[in-house]
Amino acid sequence: MADADDRRKYKPLENVLIRINRDIISLSDVEVRRNNAILRSLLEDILIPEMKEKDPLFEKLFTRVFYGGSFYDGLRVKDPNEFDLDLLLRLPKLSEPKLIPDDDVPGYTILKLNNLPAVKRHLYMLDTYRGISKFLLESEERPYLDNNKVRMWMERVVTRALNTFPVCFGQYSIEILQSTFLVKVHKSGPALTLKLRGYMDWETIVMDIDLVPCFEFDVGHMPVQKLLNRNFQKKTFFVVPKPMNNEMVPNNNRYWRLSYQEQERELMGSDRHQYLKPTIKLLKKLKEKEHPFIASYFIKTVVLLEAEEREDDRYWSTSLSYVFMTCLKKYHQYIERKYIPYYWNENYNLLQSMSYSALDNLKYRLGNIIRHIERNLEAGNPYIIQNYLLTDKELSLYKEQLPFYENENANIAEEPPSSSCIIL
């Protein structure tokens, strides 16, 4: 009965949210196709072949590019100009790679090579052995792979490949799809970012491309219960050399972040989950406007956890307004508890590195937003939601697209006091 009451209460938001999602958040099809073509040509036709040419070890280990991130997940809420790409690598089977979980460091794993000398015994793999040997931790007697050494190696491979192109104004000049682009390299976290600038179809093109080296493993290497409980089409997962911001963990360079991006994409892509992706995008839009310091992945995790808890998939096709508001409230509850469990391991708290004061401020802000929306719904003003989702520029565009816009004459409930502002 309560669910039915909530559906009726939030129904006035429906058309507003649908229009925002369709007309403001949705990406331009022309831009999407163009930028995707530029990206794939740069990687598959130009950069990857050059990297293979310059580094025999990369040629032996590289398997494919995984096009990940919000753009390829269909969750991008800003211009389609930022991309997260994983360069997937496979270790030789002869080396007997093994992933070792550590209960004290959930969400991460240690990558060990149980039989690296076996690679050395094959003459045709001698160079591979020498290359992989350079990835090992020097301070450990056991053959653990050092994530920092792998990142540095990948940086050298990319740089050597780029050095084959002419330099213009301190940037690499590369011809892509018959247009000239300037590329410079920026290092951040586990990623190497290619900052690309150019001109095509009478438009200035700006793209940031994150390249992350990852090792790919079959599901059997890390039996996670949620993987075993579902019959996922994708049977592989990745380990990512993401630096661990925890000085209390000794030798933290040996830890690799577990990544189940392909399985998460399957979970979001179900035909039964009509409003799952639109809800994530709307929550991300609210995050960008109100509290951009929260990682977008946390938002996605909250909604995936909600999908797991809701046994009846019909919930996801009730109405966008109902799904959005219930997920917003659930997000608020997680922040209130200062705990968002990692979807694949509930012992890993995604919020663990955030200060209590920041989370408390966010808790109050989200609570005030929810109450303000509901008070305005009672006053007959569903348009108040746009104030929390849209920038001033977007709001102006939204009004232009709605000749019947009613907000000017609506009864507007007073916004909560400004003491709810977030202080970092």
Automatic annotation (TrEMBL):
<feature type="domain" description="Mab-21-like HhH/H2TH-like">
    <location>
        <begin position="277"/>
        <end position="365"/>
    </location>
</feature>
<keyword id="KW-0479">Metal-binding</keyword>
<dbReference type="GO" id="GO:0005525">
    <property type="term" value="F:GTP binding"/>
</dbReference>
<keyword id="KW-0547">Nucleotide-binding</keyword>
<dbReference type="GO" id="GO:0016779">
    <property type="term" value="F:nucleotidyltransferase activity"/>
</dbReference>
<dbReference type="InterPro" id="IPR046906">
    <property type="entry name" value="Mab-21_HhH/H2TH-like"/>
</dbReference>
<feature type="domain" description="Mab-21-like nucleotidyltransferase">
    <location>
        <begin position="71"/>
        <end position="269"/>
    </location>
</feature>
<dbReference type="Pfam" id="PF03281">
    <property type="entry name" value="Mab-21"/>
</dbReference>
<dbReference type="Pfam" id="PF20266">
    <property type="entry name" value="Mab-21_C"/>
</dbReference>
<dbReference type="InterPro" id="IPR046903">
    <property type="entry name" value="Mab-21-like_nuc_Trfase"/>
</dbReference>
<keyword id="KW-0808">Transferase</keyword>
<keyword id="KW-0342">GTP-binding</keyword>
<keyword id="KW-0464">Manganese</keyword>
<keyword id="KW-0067">ATP-binding</keyword>
<dbReference type="InterPro" id="IPR024810">
    <property type="entry name" value="MAB21L/cGLR"/>
</dbReference>
<comment type="similarity">
    <text>Belongs to the mab-21 family.</text>
</comment>
<protein>
    <recommendedName>
        <fullName>Cyclic GMP-AMP synthase-like</fullName>
    </recommendedName>
</protein>
<dbReference type="GO" id="GO:0046872">
    <property type="term" value="F:metal ion binding"/>
</dbReference>
<dbReference type="GO" id="GO:0005524">
    <property type="term" value="F:ATP binding"/>
</dbReference>
<keyword id="KW-0460">Magnesium</keyword>
<keyword id="KW-0548">Nucleotidyltransferase</keyword>
